[in-house]
Amino acid sequence: MTTAAFVERCRELAAGSGCSEQTPCSPGPELSESESLIGFFQLFRPDGGDLHGLFDVLRQGDQLSERLQNAYQAAGDDRRPQGGRDAFFIVRSPSPLAPEQAEHLGATWIQGLQQLAEAVADSHVAQQLASPPKIRVLEGIPPKHPKQPHQRSELLNVFLDHAPGLTEKVAGVDPHAELLRPAYYFIACDAMLRDYLMWPFYAEQTGLADPFDSYFTLWAHGVKFRIFQENQIDLYLPRHPDGS
User: Fold this and answer.
1) Largest CA distance in the chain
2) H/E run at residue 227
3) What is the pLDDT of residues 26-63, one digit of tens each?
4) What mean pLDDT is predicted for residues 171-190?
């Protein structure tokens, strides 16, 4: 199926879901086809059931569907406790994760990113992660990263500015990947989650095990990462009322 035909299929599904002005069903003169799909996956909360069969025309369809279902299940209901609905996929009721497991997942994630950087010949990211940063596990609401680039550590710049572009450097990828990239990113405004969901597009070309699987597990448990030093990544576990 061509990308144009795939977009048309998405528009049909969106229209059937009750597409609104906030989630356009078709591109206007100011939107590209890929931009017109931003917000598409949000239309099918909470379970994504109406998307069944969407990816059947793609060779990676089964894997893409399975991963997207993982995100729907992790985020669950999109209704906010105070009323209204979430604009993005937010894990509001994550199950507890042991600190030592979070540390292991963090280390595995960093190792996978370093291997991906080597595979796509991104020497800057590969060198920055060659000596893995320390993983520190904390609990509670994480502080915000510095807004100004000059206030950030180089390690943070790697994660915010360079690592999100690694998958774009994979050669020979199905053109549907580029088409869907914005829609996947705006599921949660999270490049690492996007690349987990899209990894089936890149797996064969890289020959690597999924470098984002560990990150998805952290995300699904409500864990957030923060970087304030050159050699350390902080993982913040959410507090649970029962103290678990």
Assistant:
1) 52
2) strand 224-229
3) 445 566 889 999 999 999 999 998 898 899 999 999 99
4) 97
DSSP H or E stretch at residue 47: none
Q: At what angle do helices 61-75 and 213-220 cross, to 10 degrees?
A: 20
CB 64 within 8 A of CB 53: no
Instruction: From residue 167, give the alpha-carbon distance in Å to each of 17, 35, 205, 206.
Output: 31, 19, 10, 10
Q: Which residues contact 56 (CB under 8 A, 6 or more apart)?
A: none
Q: Answer whether 0.85 is exceeded by the pTM.
A: yes
- Tokens found for residue 72: 């729907």
Backbone angles phi, psi at 88, to 5 degrees: -130, 170
- For residue 129, which of 211, 236, 231, 234 has the smallest C-alpha distance? 231
* pLDDT at residue 21, as a whole number: 44
In this structure, the number of other CB atoms found within 10 A of the CB of residue 82 comes to 5
